[in-house]
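forwarding from the other thread:

> can someone predict this with norvaline?

sure thing
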Amino acid sequence: MNILSINDLSKEDMLRIFDIADNLKENKEQASLRENSTLALFFEKPSTRTRTSFEAGISQLGGKGIYIDAATSQRSRGESYSDIGKMLSSYCDFIAARLYKHDDIVEMAENSAVPVINALTDLEHPTQALVDMYTMNSHIKNFKDISIAFIGDIATNTANSLMLAATKLNSRISLVGPKDYMPNNAYFNKAREHGLVYVYDSIKEGLDGANIVYTDTFVSMGQEGEADKRREMFKDYQVNSKLLEYASQDALVMHCLPAHRGEEITAEVIDGPRSIVWEQAKNKLLIAKAVLLFLSLKQQ
Ligand code: CP
Ligand code: NVA
C-alpha cells in the first residue's frame, strides 16, 4: 500500500492512524517496527519538518532513515523515477519522497516493492492533512463539528489534501481566495462527492461559522518565479486580527509552516493565543510514526 494521496486512504484508515497516534501519545504500548527497518527519504525540495519528523520517527521506532538529496543523486543526471523506486525498494522497507511533479511519485511507486509515502508534491501533501485533521480533532471532539476556512492559495497541495481529508471525515471546509482564482477542479469535485466543500471570494461569507482558520504560504516551492505576482494577488487574504473577526469567536488558527510573517499571516496571529500552529507542527512526529506503523501493519 502507498500513501500518495488522501484518495489512497479510507475514512477508517485515517481513524486507525489517529488511533495509533493516540496510543503512542499516551505511551500505552512500546511501539516498534521490525528490527532494523529502513526508510529512504528521497527529497527534491527543501524540508524542515517532514524530513526531520520521519527520520526521528523511524529512529524512535527502532529503525533508521536514509536521506537522499535528489540533487546529489544520479537523478541530477537524469536517472528515471522508475529505476530509483525499484532500487530504493530493494534496499529499504519504506520510501518517503518529496518531488516536484505528482506523476513522478506515481511512477516511482509503480516500480517500488515497498510502500511509498508522499512527503509533498505539487498536487498533494497527504501526511500534512493527517496531521491537520488529528490536531483539529484534539480540540474539537466530533469531526462533524469542525468547520475549516482555508484562506489564500486555495489551489495549493495542502488545500487539495485537506479538502479530501476533511470531507471524508465529515468536516466542513470553505476555500477562501481571490475572485476567479479557483481550487483544483479534480480535487474540488472529489471532495464534493464526499461532503461539504465550498468556494468563496468574500472573506465575510467564507469565514462565517469557521472554528478553524487555516493558511499556507502564498508562494509554494517551485513558484518562486511568480512570487511578486502571487503576493499581490493574495494580499487581501492575509490572516490577521481583523480577518479573524469574521470567524467564530473561539476559532483556532493553523498553518502547515514554513510561515512568512507579514505575508499570509501576521506575527501577532501566528504567535498569539489562538494559534495552535506549534502543536500542529509537533504532531508531525506522532503522525509520521503512526503512518509507518499503520503501513507495516497493512503489510502483515
Ligand atoms: N509542513 C511541512 O511540510 O514543512 P516542511 O516543508 O518543513 O517539511
Ligand atoms: N504549499 C507549500 C507547502 C509547504 C509545506 C509548498 O508546496 O511549498
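The pocket of phosphoric acid mono(formamide)ester (ligand 1) is lined by residues 47-50, 120, 128, 256-258 (CB under 6 Å). thats all i got for now
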